[in-house]
Amino acid sequence: RRRLAPLNEDNGRFLLLAALIAAYLSAGATVFSALESPSEAAAQLRWNRTLHNFSRIFNISLPELRAFLRSYEAAMAAGIRVDALRPRWDFPGAFYFVGTVVSTIGFGMTTPATVAGKLFLIVYGLFGCAGTILFFNLFLERIISLLAFIMRACYERQLQRSGLLPPNFRRGPSVSGVGSLVGWKPSVYHVMLILGIFAITLSCCASAMYTAVEGWNYVDSLYYCFVTFSTIGFGDLVSNQKAAYQHQGLYRFGNFIFILMGVCCIYSLFNVISIIIKQVLNWVLKKLECRCCPKCHKSSTRLSRRNAITPGARLRRHNVAMDADGQYDSDTEGRRLSGEMISMRELTASSKVSLAILQKQLSETANGYPRNVCINTRQNGFSAGVGALAIMNNRLAETSDSR
Question: Which stretches are transmembrane (predicted)?
Fold first, then answer.
């Protein structure tokens, strides 16, 4: 039986980054609270003094004056609030602020008012946003690995039920000896579907919580979830802004978890959707180009592969051979078994796009291949990660090799 290491290098790096980001958020909330809280308290004191003086001079009762200001606030969305709200720059409020800064949500309902706070925000946001984007990329890699493991387990069970695999089959080095699993690759469309279902479920659950606690209608809650999870952050609806809630600590924790998981999930979904959109555009451009050239159109019709979304020239026969480490990439066999619509070999040959990186990551994870496979350095970008992080690693590796 194969024993799993308790903590490999990738997972250790991921957990360490998560701990550093948590400490970074706490430090930033402490600094912002110390810088902005005195200014907020002084402004509130000045406003209360002005309000009482106005009421005394013009002989207007405070309830009538407050009612007028509430109507003005609702109509003009004024920055000064009449009703008592939660302090913006205490530690929980400042922590909420730095979370919206580093995740690039930026609601805008809280902004630094002091010169020191604005200068600190420039430096703080530079490193905070960079670290959070790195966290999102590592989360994308982890979620793809998990989905590939689950999809492979379901595929193996399906093969066992159909009698193509023995009942006591175990995943491991013997995978290469089983013909039904050679070159099997999970479909990127299945990954997109699973991420989409999870994002919708998460948004629906969060919307139910906001409807019950904040008093919004369900459509407004769904709108807030999308605007927040996608890091658009208009700021017209902002959660956790009342002075007090029932079970306030539990609600703050739930709000933080929903926003964190929602942003990570939507970021992963956006990356997968952007890959699909890019490939559809490439397919359309290729079709238009081939229709303009009859000779090219005839060649592409003769050499086209079944279910390949990006048509292209067939690779030379010596490129179809085994890799240097003896592992064979059965691209045609994998697509026939998994229903995959992407031709990995043609994508890698035509343009090194993110879909190739994503599909290779899914294949290596599902088939149990080691991440440090010994192959050509210029083609070893697939094991460096997924998405924008992997593209950067590939570019740096090529630059290093060229020198």
Answer: 94-113, 119-140, 188-209, 221-238, 250-270
Q: Is 147 helix (H, G, I), strand (E, B) or coil?
A: helix
300 neighbors 291 (Cβ within 8 angstroms): no
Residue 394 has which token pair? Answer: 């590939």
Q: Give the start-to-end residue ranges of the domains of the chain.
A: 5-162+186-283
pLDDT above 70 (res 228): yes
Dist. CA 144–CA 347, nearest whole Å: 20
**Residue 228, both tokens:** 């927040």
347 neighbors 355 (Cβ within 8 angstroms): yes
Cα(95)–Cα(184) distance, integer angstroms: 45
What the block records as the tokens of 331 is: 């691209």
pLDDT digits (tens, 9 = 90+) for 185-217: 677 888 899 999 999 999 999 999 999 999 999
The Cα 335–Cα 342 span in angstroms is 8
Contact 157, 189 (CB under 8 A): no
Half-sphere exposure of 79 (CA within 13 A, CB side): 10
pTM, two decimal places = 0.66
Instruction: Tell me the two tokens of residue 91.
Output: 């530690």
- Compute the half-sphere exposure of residue 138: CA atoms within 13 Å on the CB side of its CA: 16
Print burial letters for 92-105: b (CB count within 10 Å at least 16), e (below 16). bbbbbbbbbbbbeb
Q: CA 171, 173, 178, 183 torsion: positive or negative?
A: positive
One-letter amino acid identity for 387? G
Q: How many CB atoms lie within 10 A of CB 13?
A: 12
363 close to 185: Cβ distance less than 8 angstroms: yes
> What distance in Å separates the CA atoms of residue 133 and residue 268, rounded to the nearest whole number?
11
Whether the per-residue pLDDT at 372 is higher than 60: the answer is no
Q: pLDDT-based confidence at 149, cuts 50/70/90?
A: confident
Q: Does domain 5-162+186-283 have CATH number 3.40.190.10?
A: no
Distances from the Cα of 334 to the Cα of 92, 174, 344, 360, angstroms: 51, 17, 10, 12
